[in-house]
Design a protein that fits this description.
Elements lengths: L5 H19 L9 H15 L5 H7 L2 H19 L2 H8 L7 H19 L1 H18 L4 H15 L8 H10 L3 H26 L1 H4 L8 H11 L6 H13 L15 E2 L2 E2 L1 H9 L4 H47 L4 H16 L4 H4 L4 H19 L2 H9 L8 H18 L1 H19 L1 H17 L9 H12 L9 H22 L3
Antiparallel strand pairs: 1-2
Helix pairs in contact: 1-2, 1-18, 2-18, 3-18, 4-9, 4-15, 4-16, 6-7, 6-8, 6-10, 7-8, 7-12, 7-23, 8-10, 8-23, 8-24, 9-21, 9-22, 10-24, 13-15, 15-16, 20-21, 20-22, 21-22, 22-24
Protein name: Transporter arsB isoform X1
Organism: Theobroma cacao (Cacao)
Membrane topology: Multi-pass membrane protein
Length: about 500
């Protein structure tokens, strides 16, 4: 692509620079408007500066990616309401055999859940569980939070729905869900194992603490925020209402007469006493309700439990159906939206509460980013830089792979991974296709792998890292601050090792 005129080149670069600053530093003092507004500002400036026309700006927005993002977020919301993440949390402490075992469990659960529910969602839901477990076992939270964030990023590489940049790559490349999974899965598995082993080695002394197999952590998780205990309506609701409204007229019950049931059987003496001591029609009505209430509440409670189980089963079946459809190669965006709509219908309620869980700010951020990146591409700067680098980044050579990976790592941490994919994706694929058509798919998969794993390099490398950091700080009475340097100390060796694994295992 030829370079644009100097005016458009300068103005387009300014617009992109504003977008980049606000994306990387959303609370910059001179303009603290955040990432979402920053992306809209960058896109709008591209139009105002006439780098793009209004029609070109609309065309730059990829609706298929937005649809896939929306659908997966809605499905994740329904999975959360069906207690899917609660069960994942319980797996963390089930028959735990020590701190090192716990690290491995966190890595495994984080990686698997991220592959199917996105890394951001997994970190959002699991951070508090992980922090509570560490605190209750008197273990340092740092290695466990690092395990959660880093494994979420690595695990999300396995599928097109694992993270936003994979959605972009799958849509632009045309690689099917099954091809994507089989192409990257071996690297994901080995990368997750190496990441867990590195964590254990680096924090060996901190993790060498003996804990009971069943300890207070499991009880804490079960009792607070995971599966809170509820009193049975059959035994509590009517008694509470009667005590608040006062005694019934002429009602005095003592000893055995105070219980409607004795040893699981109906206490006839209690019922006869109540009937004999009621002298008015109003009293009979109140007593009738009092006597029948426990039975009605019990039946209602049983019915609600069955409805809950049926609803959860429907949610899991729809999600399994969605995954099977994706593996069969059906349109990913259409499949995700269809699954989301099916869950809304099956829920048979107003869908607003679940739709409110959708991160519309993320969708708007993507809209602005698509326009901004397209405008920056129009300046010709990315093409010129790629032409300088291309001779040294041949995908069929070891040295070329190393240079390519280094460029992706640096760009992903400077401009974030999704803009990196948008800037480099088509150029890498076109360059690889000149060597061989088989290398084109490999180029896309390597871009996916390196741009995602690059998120583990520093705390600012991915949204999942920031989510873990922010969530951990805000847990009441248990908050922990994961610092930039503590993350970097582990992130650099982990990123380099895991990236190298992918470059070796991902084949054309």
């Amino acid at each position: 692509m030829a370079m644009a005129s100097y005016v458009k080149l300068i103005l387009g670069s300014i617009a992109f620079a504003i977008f980049w600053v606000l994306a990387v530093f959303p609370a910059v003092p001179c303009l603290p408007i955040g990432r979402t507004a920053g992306s809209l500002l960058g896109g709008m400036l591209m139009v105002i500066f006439q780098v793009l026309t209004v029609d070109q700006a609309y065309e730059a927005i990829d609706l298929s990616i937005l649809g896939l993002l929306f659908g997966t977020m809605v499905v994740s919301g329904y999975l959360e309401s069906a207690d899917a993440f609660k069960y994942l949390g319980k797996l963390l402490t089930w028959k735990s055999k020590g701190a090192k075992d716990l690290i491995c469990r966190i890595c495994l659960i984080s990686a698997i859940s991220s592959a199917f529910f996105t890394n951001d969602t997994s970190c959002m839901v699991l951070t508090e569980f992980v922090l509570k477990i560490a605190r209750q076992k008197n273990l340092p939270p740092q290695p466990f939070l690092l395990a959660l964030a880093s494994s979420a990023n690595i695990g999300s590489t396995a599928t097109p729905i694992g993270n936003p940049q994979n959605l972009v790559i799958a849509t632009q490349s045309g690689i099917s869900f099954g091809e994507f999974l089989t192409g990257i899965l071996p690297a994901t598995i080995l990368g997750s194992i190496v990441n867990a082993l590195l964590l254990i080695c680096m924090y060996w002394n901190l993790l060498s603490v003996k804990i009971d197999e069943e300890d207070s952590a499991a009880q804490f998780l079960t009792g607070d925020g995971v599966s809170s205990h509820h009193f049975s309506p059959a035994t509590m609701s009517r008694l509470a209402s009667s005590s608040s409204q006062g005694r019934l007229p002429g009602l005095e019950i003592t000893n055995v007469l105070t219980s409607p049931h004795v040893n699981g059987s109906v206490n006839l003496a209690y019922h006869d006493t109540l009937r004999n001591r009621v002298n008015s029609d109003q009293g009979e009505t109140e007593i009738h309700g009092f006597l029948n209430g426990p039975w009605e509440s019990r039946n209602s409670n049983c019915s609600e439990r069955w409805k809950g189980k049926l609803w959860k089963s429907c949610v899991y079946l729809v999600v399994v159906g969605m995954l099977i459809s994706l593996l069969m190669g059906l349109n990913m965006s259409g499949t995700a939206i269809s699954a989301a709509l099916a869950l809304m219908i099956l829920d048979f309620k107003d869908a607003v509460p679940c739709l409110e869980k959708v991160s519309y700010s993320l969708l708007i951020f993507f809209c602005g980013m698509f326009v901004t990146v397209q405008g920056f591409n129009k300046t010709g700067i990315p093409s010129a830089l790629w032409e300088l680098m291309e001779p040294y980044a041949k995908i069929d050579q070891v040295s070329g792979m190393a240079v390519l990976a280094l460029v992706i790592l640096v760009l992903s941490n400077l401009v974030s991974n999704v803009p990196t994919v948008l800037l480099l994706g088509a150029r890498m694929a076109a360059s690889a296709a000149l060597i061989s058509t088989a290398f084109e798919k490999k180029a896309w998969l390597i871009l996916s792998w390196v741009s995602t794993v690059a998120g583990n390099l520093s705390l600012l490398g991915s949204a999942a890292n920031l989510i873990v950091c922010e969530q951990a700080c805000r847990v009441p009475n248990l908050g922990y601050t994961l610092t930039f340097w503590s993350h970097l100390k582990f992130g650099v060796p982990s990123t380099l090792l895991v990236t190298a694994i992918g470059l070796i295992l991902i084949k054309s």
